[in-house]
Amino acid sequence: MESNNEIVLLDEYESMYGMRPRMALALKGIGYESKEEDLDNKSPLLLKMNPIHKKIPVLIHNGKPICESLIIVEYIDEVWNDKYPLLPSDPYKRAQARFWAGVIDAKIYDRLVEWVFKTKDENAIKEEIAEWLKLLEGELGKDTYFGGDKIGFLDLALISFFPWLLAFEKEVNFSMEELVCPKLIEWTKRCLQNETISKCFADPLKISQMVLQMRKTNGVN
After folding, report:
1. Contact 69, 57 (CB under 8 A)
2. For the residues 27-31, what does the mean pLDDT come to?
3. Could you tell me what percent of the chain has a pLDDT over 90?
4. Architecture of domain 91-217
5. CATH classification for the domain delimited by 7-79, as one of 3.90.550.10, 2.60.40.10, 1.10.10.10, 3.40.30.10
């Protein structure tokens, strides 16, 4: 793996967004320094590098910060464009990958956050997440990955939700198999069989335990 002491990733182990740059860097074989953040006690470095949102992940390259996970993944792809390209070369396919990555963050993430922090009414959230997963399966079509024959930008955007969706499945009796999403299930298995990808994941059991505690703390359990 190529090493570069001028690359630092401010991250948090459980973060679905933190998993994205971890996977992108790993696929490209780029070495970096990882700094785990405690979001209840944010470091001066994080506050300096992301003063607007004060959130992780933040990639620091040659002392300059890049914020927001999808922007970071695009930056990584552009800077190290000779190593394992992540975004499609075709402009239309590239635009579609960006569009659907935005849908994932705007729709699935918002519903998961609502479940964790705000509501005991799980049925409506289950139905909405199911709807978006079915649409994403349609976008996958007959391809092996959203990136075609190899893992790409949109694959990283969605698979980073896997540990959280497992926690959701476990706690609310929600099953992708019951949704009749066979292509998406097989896609998930293929991604997990990629050792480079699976090493970047948080432990789903730890995510599940953390989610239960968060729901209890917020009075929605």
Report:
1. yes
2. 96
3. 59
4. Up-down Bundle (1.20)
5. 3.40.30.10
Amino acid at 124: A
With tokens 């933040």, the residue in question is 58
Q: Is the pLDDT of residue 72 over 90?
A: yes
Q: What does the pLDDT look like over 74-124, one tens digit per residue?
A: 999 999 999 999 999 999 999 999 999 999 999 888 888 887 776 667 778
C-alpha distances (whole Å) from 143 to each of 73, 187, 189 are 22, 9, 14
The dihedral built from the CA positions of residue 66, 136, 15 and 3, taken in this order, carries a sign that is negative
Give the CB-side neighbour count of residue 8, counting CA atoms within 13 A: 14
Give the predicted TM-score (pTM) of the model: 0.91
Complete edge-to-edge strand list for the sheet that includes strand 7-11: 33-36, 7-11, 58-61, 64-67
Radius of gyration of the chain (CA): 17
